[in-house]
Amino acid sequence: MSASQIMIMAFTINFKCALVFVVAIPLLFVGVIFIMLVSIPLFKKVQAALDRVTGLTRENLTGVRVIRAFCREEESVNEFEISNTALTKLNEFVGRISALLNPFIYVLINIATVILIAKAGVQVNLGAMQ
């Protein structure tokens, strides 16, 4: 069954309980879109930082004789460490934001389920639903 068919069946069975879906689904959509809009540009920054670290590594490997000849080993190592640390911090930050997606979805679905069960329980107690 498609989502539209499920919504039609929910409204056919019980209009008041189906309203929980009408609220929960747009909230899920907005939450997912928000997290995606925040994380996608950050992933592009991570890619740029990774390109920088990869470029430094390539430069160090191809120019190892020149680096040794001019005694620039320490400078090269420091430059790599700075770039690598920046990449690590950015990756951790983006990972934390992306990690919010699953808990957000599960919390919202669980809240909707609790509200749905509570509404249905009240209607069953009143005899409006069997």
TrEMBL record:
It comes from the Bacteria. One of its GO terms (cellular component) is plasma membrane. It is a multi-pass membrane protein. Keywords: ATP-binding, Membrane, Nucleotide-binding, Transmembrane, Transmembrane helix. Residues 6-130 form the ABC transmembrane type-1 domain. One of its GO terms (molecular function) is ABC-type transporter activity. PROSITE patterns: ABC_TM1F. The chain crosses the membrane at residues 20-43, 104-122. Its main location: membrane. It is found in: Cell membrane. The keyword Membrane applies. The keyword Zinc does not apply. SUPFAM superfamilies: ABC transporter transmembrane region. Signal peptide: none annotated. This is ABC transporter ATP-binding protein. The lineage of its organism: Bacteria, Bacillati, Bacillota, Clostridia, Lachnospirales.
